Amino acid sequence: MLSDTDPKEETGPGGHTEAVDDALTNKGDALRNDSPANDSPVADMVRFDQVVKRFGDHTVLDQLDFGLRRGERVTLIGPSGSGKTTILRLLMTLERVTEGTIHVDGEPFSHMPGGRDGLVPANEKYLRERRRRIGMVFQQFNLFPNMKVLENVTEAPVHVLGLSRDEAAERGRELLDLVGLADKCDAHPTQLSGGQQQRVAIARALAMRPDILLLDEVTSALDPELVAGVLDVLRDIALSTDITMLCVTHEMGFARDVSDRVMMFDHGHVLEAGPPDQLFEAPEHTRTREFLSAVL
Amino acid sequence: MSEFLTQFSRSLPSVWQGVSVTLQATVLSALLALVLAFVLGFMSRSDQLLVRGLSRVVVEFLRGTSLYVQLFWLFFALPILGFKLEPLACAVVAFGLNYGAYGSEVVRGALNAVPQAQWEAAVALNLSPWQRMRRVILPQAWVQMIPPFNNLLIQLLKSTPLLSLITISDLTFQMDQLRSTTGNTAAAYVTLLVIYFVLAYALTLLMNALEAVAKARLGQGSGLRHVLKPPSAGITDPDGRAARAGGV
Fold first, then answer.
1. Hey, which CATH number is domain B2-244, 3.30.1370.60, 1.20.1270.10, 1.10.3720.10, 2.40.440.10?
2. In A, which residues are within 8 Å of B126 by CB distance?
3. Is A72 helix (H, G, I), strand (E, B) or coil?
4. Which of A70, A142, B106, B121 is the Cys-Cys partner for A45 at CB 3.0 to 4.6 Å?
5. For residue A32, what pLDDT is reported?
């Protein structure tokens, strides 16, 4: 079993900078290149086994096997409707699998122990325990309009992690500083630009100290001139922490900069996967080539 | 006319007492209705078919039967079955149940109108189901509930003349006394209209203030300063939320 920071320690006191320092000293480079453990499901941070997701008659994911290694940054690309976002939503427990199982860090995630087969679909209590390790940033930001910017960031740390208000506020300010919005603590989300709202949403997700960060087309709803600011923040986070990241994006430059691996999706299948240089420079499939030439 | 005014000023204490009875019945009924509206409104969104169904049946029954008949049933029929309520209690129960049923549809509609994405963001932050409702959804839904609640509150106020039919000396009863004393029917009823209008408008101003405060918390408008201006002039409503809030 690969060692990493104790999850309890991660939710303990201290600002994000501390988390960043930890990340730099514990660096996951060794883990990422640790190929012998590659085949063991336990070594994977996230493991999809034969996952099927259907909405009515429409099959979005078809017997998908898919894994994320600890600290790995993976980008999912592919045409709309190919099932990329569904993977993120399954991991965030916003959707339930139709068939198959998902494991996170070697433990059942979509299911929980029990029943005759050893696994039954997870209930809300079980999911609450599991999904605390996962954070998500949405395409439409989804900030809470009934809370000011800082409150958006401190709400869950106070009510879910049980931090004191002062402690949560201090960490919240540090995170807002990290995304360049220290001066907007008392603003309402409606007073911010889309790019600023998205940076708040990133701070909000990081405030829960996730091990895995899911980014769902986080720049797709932004005006072009605001995209760079958000991507810069994400680049910083990718470079300075060891958070496992799974992105769905159409920003190929960003995908190339931060990804360890890029996966090309089509019709609920992984068409091909590989390091960004390989996939962007020498894609194997015609379908990938067509897609890349359309978006690049 | 001057004779009427003299009589009116002479009977001001009893008119005032009528106003206070009317307001008392309105406020107590509104509180019961509010509680019931939330209980039935939450039940109508339950995962359990039974809970949802029960809420549906109760709402349809209470909405579908006449308030007038409900009130008379509580006042005249219930004692025959061995339960005797004070007249005011009958009124509060009848009004509370009836308007609570209408109010539950307001609650249900407003909760449904909060975008699904807000629930999802709350799940992503691992808030518990109760925290999602209490901390994220309800504060947003509440703003949308206030205008239709205001409608219902005014309707409730205007239903209270029924009180005089079950021996309660409300505003209508007192003014009716004044009408028989003076014999000036036109003046008495015009005065009554005016008093009800003033009361209703006071309630509206109160609810507008409540709405402005609630909206300011969502970063819309700037609170009480815009209370007296119509929404288009003062309160920003970029999503047209108020328009969608819907009535009953």
1. 1.10.3720.10
2. 128, 131-132, 156, 160, 208
3. coil
4. A70
5. 37
